[in-house]
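Sequence, please.
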């Protein structure tokens, strides 16, 4: 259970980080 929660939290963090990185790239280009 703990491992599953950790994996879920890590996946959410990864998605959030990649989303912000893409946002920064779009702003830099625009």
């Amino acid at each position: 259970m703990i491992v599953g929660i950790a994996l879920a939290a890590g996946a959410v963090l990864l998605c959030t980080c990649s989303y912000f990185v893409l946002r920064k790239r779009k702003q830099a280009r625009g």
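The mean pLDDT is 91.
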